[in-house]
Structure formats: C-alpha cells, structure tokens
Amino acid sequence: MRIILCGFGVVAQSLAKLLESRTSDLYSKYGMKPRIVGVFDSKGSAHDNSGLDLKKLISAKKEFGSVRGYNKSEKIISGLEMIENLDADVLIETTASNYKDAEPGMSHIINAMKKGLHVISVNKGPLALAFPSLMELAKYNQVLLRFSGTVGGGTPILDYAKNSLRGEKIISFQGILNGTTNYILTNMRNGLSFNDALQDEVNQFYEKGKYEPTSEDLARKKSEKDKQKQLKLLKKQRKAPSMSRIPRHNRDFYY
Ligand SMILES: NC(=O)c1ccc[n+]([C@@H]2O[C@H](COP(=O)([O-])OP(=O)(O)OC[C@H]3O[C@@H](n4cnc5c(N)ncnc54)[C@H](OP(=O)(O)O)[C@@H]3O)[C@@H](O)[C@H]2O)c1
Description:
Blueprint: E1 2-6, H1 10-21, H2 23-30, E2 35-41, E3 44-47, H3 54-64, H4 79-85, E4 90-93, H5 105-114, E5 118-121, H6 124-140, E6 145-146, H7 157-164, H8 179-189, H9 194-207, H10 215-238, H11 248-251
Parallel strand pairs: 1-2, 1-4, 4-5, 5-6
Antiparallel strand pairs: 2-3
Helix pairs in contact: 4-5, 5-6, 8-9
C-alpha cells in the first residue's frame, strides 16, 4: 500500500512511528506493507517510489524543521503536484484544520479522490464544510473516505455509531472527547477554578514545545509566572493528578 502523507506534524509523525514499529506485525496479520511514498509539509516535500525511510524522515523533520531536509538535492514539489504525479493508493490528510475554506486539505482530498486514491482525513475542516459532497465524490469515484481519527481517534465512536447502531436514531451523545478537556475537568474536580485549570494546561502545552508563542503570548506568560508558582503550590496541596498519573483509559474518554 503506497501512501501520500499531507502534513508532517504531531499526528503524521505519530503515524509514521506506528507504521515503523508495526511493520512485521501488519504484514503477518494483514499481509499489508504500507509504504509512505510521498510527504509534504508547509515548507517542502520528500518522495521515493520505493518508500521513504521513516526514521530518517522523522530525524530530518526534527533537524531541519521540514521534510525537505530528507533529501536536500531533491526538487521540491507542491502537495497537489505530488498527488497528481505520484503513484499511490491512499492519501492521508493531516494538515491543519481551517474552517473558513478548509484549504489546503479540501483540495488535497478532492484531487486525490478524483485520481482514484482512497482518503483518510484527520483534518476536520473539509468534513465540517462539505461532508455530503465529499461523501458523494467518494462514492462517484468508488473510493473510501475515512475520518474516524478526526474526533475521539482513540475510541472509534463514529464507526461504532455507523456500523453497530444502524437501526437506532441517535438523539444525543455525551463524552469528553479529548485529553485537554479531560485534563481541565479533572483539575476542576480537584478544586481548581476553570481559569487556573486552563492556564495550567496552556503552560504544559508551552513546556511540551508544541506551540510557537507569539510576542503577545510571551508577555502574557511572563506576567503569569508568579501566578503559576502559587498555582503549583496549590496543585501540590490538592494533589491534582498530572497527566502522566491519570490512567491512560481515563484520559480521553469516559461515559
Ligand atoms: N493532534 C491531535 O490530537 C488531533 C486529533 C484529531 C484531529 N486532529 C487534526 O489533525 C490535523 C493535524 O493535527 P496535528 O496536531 O498533527 O497538527 P500539526 O502538528 O500542526 O501539523 C500540521 C501539519 O500540516 C502542515 N501544513 C500546514 N499548512 C500546510 C500547507 N499549506 N501545505 C502543506 N502542509 C501544511 C504543517 O506543516 P509544518 O510542519 O511545516 O508547519 C504540519 O506538518 C489537524 O487538522 C487537527 O485538527 C489532531
């Protein structure tokens, strides 16, 4: 199975690591040998028809800030050029969600399906803006459009509702759909106010290095420093669990 990966951020790199670590398992269980033949991020691209070396790809992204560092002598091609010209079976869309026009994900998905590629999207934008027409396009081109990873990725709730509750009319649904919300609610249950719990989460986000702060963010962070010292003390006193101490099965979901 030849895969084109759009975007190479948190989700895509996790997928690459997963594919790398489960190569033999996937082959022995499903006879499947997934190969990422092309990948692009906002600054460049990398491709190899025989499959990119995923460890090297992750290192290149880390070192150079772009998959472009994988093979610097290679000509950079745009995402749409890659979809048009590369032989592939599946497109995995992981670029940032945009709810105004859903680009660039929308064009990636449409062009891939028109070319006969199956599509998996974790990008919510295109689905939020054009779900019916995208499903229709998938049907017309006889390809699959899968999107379980967009929400509650760790718990395949959308597929469950679609496949196992076909005869039911779902009236409402309740759950905590992501780790961030669960973290905030857990801290609130342990006595923090919403604002303090939110700020604690934001600070953790900075510390993980996932966010590139603007100068405004940095100024706000500076003024929050003292407050945080007090917050940490308060947290200690109230024994609020850190993320790593919340059991894995409780982090993302509960009913
Ligand atoms: N993280 C989650 O837990 C989660 C869960 C469910 C759904 N999602 C959705 O999954 C998607 C990816 O999430 P993420 O956390 O992996 O985000 P991320 O770390 O910000 O990664 C986004 C990737 O898209 C690339 N990108 C942005 N604009 C682009 C463009 N115009 N052309 C090509 N590439 C572009 C970025 O390039 P650079 O690396 O060059 O910046 C980056 O590699 C988002 O739509 C998000 O809403 C995420």
